[in-house]
Amino acid sequence: MATNGSTRPTAAEKLRGMLADPKRLIVCPGVYDGYTARIALAEGVDCLYMTGAGTTMSRLGMADMGIATMNDMRDNASMIANIDPDTPLIADADTGYGGAIMVGRTVTQYILVGVAGLHLEDQVVTKRCGHLQGKQLVSVEEYTSRIKAAVMARSAARGDIVLIARTDALQSLGYSGALERLRAAVAEGADVAFLEGVKTREQAEQFIKDMAPTPCLFNNVPGGVSPDFSVDEAQTIGYRIAIYPALGIEVVYPAVKKAIQQLLRGGKVESVEKDGKRWSPRELFEVCGLKESMEFDVKAGGTAYANGA
C-alpha cells in the first residue's frame, strides 16, 4: 500500500516491485539535471539514476572528488525525482556525508524528496570516483555503522527507500575483503549489493552467486576498470540493476565541444542529427513539458496560453 496517502504506489514501492521480479533487469540511464532527465523520461525509461559525478560536474563545475555536499545532492535529486514521481529514481548518496547521525539525516532527506533508492559506500568522506585509483576506505565497523544508521533512519521516517550497499574495497582488500563488507551490510538491512570496480565477467558471476539471494547492481562506466557489459550480458550474468552514470556526461561532451568549435572556427553552428535542420526552441521546450504545462494552465482557468504559444 502506498505510504503517501494515495492509492498510487510510491516510487520506492515501484522499485521494490521491480526488484521482486527475479527475471527482470532494471536499466537506469544516468542523468544529472532536469534536461537530461526529461530526455530520458520522454523515451519511456522505467527507472532513472542520478550520477554523483554528473551532479558535481554540472552543478559545481568540478571533478568528482568528494566535493558535493548532501545539500547539493539532495536538491538535485529532489528536482529530478519530482519531474515524474511515477518513475523511480536511484540516487548516489556517496558516503552519507559524515558520521552515523549525518547518514541518518541524508537518508531521511532523500526519502522526504521522493528518491526511490540510494547507495552508500565505504570510502572516507573525502572520497573520489570509484573508477579512479588511490581510494581510501573506512573500517568495516564504520561502514556497517553507516548502513545501520541508514536502516534506522528509514524505519523512523514516514516513507521508504531501497538501500544499496556499495563497497570500493575490491581495489585494496581484494575480492574476499569486499565480499565480507557487503555481506555485513546486508546483514544490517541493506537491500541490494553493489561491488564497485568488478574486473571480469567471471568475477561478476561469482559475485552474484556469493551474494544470493540478495539482488546485485552493476555499474557500467565505459573506459573505467569494469567490462562494458551490454544489457543482455548483465542480465545473463544475473545482475538485477544496471546503472549507466556516464551516459549523459559522456555524450554531451563531444556534442557541445563540436558545436563550440563550429561557432569559433566557422562562425556558424551546424545541425545535429536532424535532417540538416536546427532544433527550434519550441521543439526543445516540448521535451521539457511545454505542451503539458500549457494544458494545465488552460484546465485551471488560466488565459495566458488559451490561444497556444
UniProtKB/TrEMBL annotation:
InterPro entries: ICL/PEPM, Isocitrate_lyase_ph_CS, Pyrv/PenolPyrv_kinase-like_dom, Pyrv_kinase-like_dom_sf. It catalyses: (2S,3R)-3-hydroxybutane-1,2,3-tricarboxylate = pyruvate + succinate. Gene3D superfamilies: Phosphoenolpyruvate-binding domains (3.20.20.60). Pfam families: PEP_mutase. It comes from the Eukaryota. One of its GO terms (molecular function) is methylisocitrate lyase activity. PANTHER family: PHOSPHOENOLPYRUVATE CARBOXYLASE, PHOSPHOENOLPYRUVATE CARBOXYLASE FAMILY PROTEIN. This is Carboxyvinyl-carboxyphosphonate phosphorylmutase. It comes from Melanomma pulvis-pyrius CBS 109.77.
